[in-house]
Amino acid sequence: MPGLPLPALPDVPEWLALWPWAEASVILFAFAWGAMLGSFINVVIHRVPLGESVVRNPSRCPHCKVAIRARDNLPVVGWLKLGGRCRTCGAGISPAYPLVEGACGLVVAALAAAELVGGGQWLAHSQATFPVGVDRLLRGDWQLLLTFCLHAAAVLTVVTWALFDAAGWKCPAIWLAPPLAIALGVVGLVPLAAPPGLLPDGGGWPARQPQLQGLAASLAGAAVGGLLGRSAAGASVRLGLPLLGSVLGWQTLTIVAVVPACAAGIARCCGRPDLRIGAFGVALAATATLALACQGPVTGAWVGLLTALTSG
Questions:
Q1: pLDDT tens digits for range 142-159
Q2: Do 193 and 96 fall within a single domain?
Q3: Measuring CA to CA, which of 2, 17, 157, 217 is 20 to 30 A from 84?
Q4: Are 150 and 253 within one domain?
């Protein structure tokens, strides 16, 4: 698939390009931000069903209601340091909190490794001349950074819906509108963030309009996701498929959508239906992370399969 033209970027100062551990630092920084977002997601899951504000009032122990000290409120580390118990009342704190924080950190770190450290070489509209490492990021490539932020936000939104499913709280369908509108806006603004083209082989239409190509492909992915997810029991799949379709494209989405169906059989050993439904969303988010990180190769595999089927 031909790459989209990118703006010329300034040279990186030699001392900055040779900075030791630059790639590892970017990945660790992404993990830290992902874990902090996971901590915020924990707050959202706890407070929204109770009708409480998610921005007012500091984090507090769910048992004694005492505010958690700043030094104890570090994602993952704070729970480990306290041994999973509140410093004030000694009540146990669910291990689900650090697990969510760590999982969100891994999602963001994986996308950072593939897209920021990898120079975007596996994106659907990457160019063969992309430098690997963090060169493009250090040169101020805002298209690559915004693409990474969009992909991370889409997956973490699905994770949030999956946790609501697991808690037995029903997410209204209107919740799809804001993230989907943001995804469409970013795709229309940033050609690099666009999914594979509208045509079955990933080709773009209209041919000379990259922004319209991206919007058409994104809308098609959202529409196919809506069709595939309309009968799903949980919001993480029913709303997650159209959202992920807007950033993955309909070709890759048809592959990713198989995972929740397969997870249904594996999750039958779980006694609670809500947990099973939430597990489908978690599986979907994990698969979408891999698909976004390797968007170009996945699209190539789809095109190869399509060619084999049509020629045979």
A1: 888 899 999 999 999 999
A2: no
A3: 157
A4: yes
What is the rounded distance in angstroms from the CA atom of residue 225 to the CA atom of residue 231? 11
What pTM, to 2 d.p., does this model score?
0.86
Q: Is residue 85 part of a domain?
A: yes
Residues 183 and 95 in one domain: no
Question: Are 71 and 214 in a shared domain?
Answer: no
Which residue among 95, 117, 139 closes a domain?
117
Residue 15 lies in a domain: no
Residue 158 lies in a domain: yes
Average pLDDT over residues 297-308: 70
Q: What's the rounded Cα separation, in Å, for the pair 88 and 86?
A: 5
Residue 168 region, left (φ>0) first, then alpha (ψ -120 to 50), else beta?
Answer: left
Place of tokens 């505010």: 67
The boundaries of the domain holding residue 91 are: 22-117
Question: Do the Cβ atoms of 69 and 58 come closer than 8 Å?
Answer: no
Q: 66-125 pLDDT, tens per residue? A: 777 777 788 888 888 888 888 878 778 888 899 999 999 999 999 999 888 887 777 877
Domain boundary residue, one of 67, 94, 117? 117
* 8 A C-beta contact, residue 267 and residue 276: yes
Query: Which amino acid belongs to residue 280?
Result: F
Give the model's confidence band at 255: pLDDT under 50 very low, under 70 low, under 90 confident, else very high. Answer: confident
By CB atoms closer than 10 A (0-12, 13-18, 19+), residue 29 is middle
Segments in the chain forming alpha helices (H): 14-17, 22-47, 77-81, 96-111, 135-138, 142-167, 177-189, 210-229, 235-238, 240-248, 250-256, 258-266, 273-293, 295-311
